[in-house]
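Methods — Computational structure assignment.
A single polypeptide chain was analysed. Its primary sequence is given first, followed by the predicted tertiary structure written as structure tokens.
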Amino acid sequence: MMMNADQSTLVLIDLQEKLMPAISQGQEVVDRSHTLATIAGLLGVPVLATEQMPDKLGHNVEAIAELCQQVITKDHFDACPDGLIDQLPEGRQEIVIAGCEAHVCMMQTALSLLEAGFKVWVVADATGSRHDLDRDVALDRLHQSGARIVTVEMVAFEWMRHAGHPQFRDVQALIK
């Protein structure tokens, strides 16, 4: 099953200023998330983000915040009890998700979205935790729970479908 741009929503979890320095390869996670959100914008895919207790962890990294149409502030690790599902655009049943920490907030949110009947794709190269083992175990658990594990490039090319897409050259330039 492939992702469809007209059915997808991108959800970026807790890419916050004070959290990212503690994340293994945190700058790479931010960079890949930024590329993903930029591609989403080019292809008309809505981009939502969450922030875990921003009064303590700061807001999302500015480069990410600029690309999001909406930010959901949350106290729960799982964003769904704090209103994520209600904020998702109607008619879009495919959720592409990335962010931090993979084994806590991102995983719990993805599991709840699966339970609510959404199709969920987890972008592995735009996902991080403080410890690589936690991230890897979370990705494995999510895969076993029905989420599809993908990369930024997989998402981009599936959303476009063909090299004749009007945004192909712009997207290709972002990936190279």
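Note: The mean pLDDT is 97.
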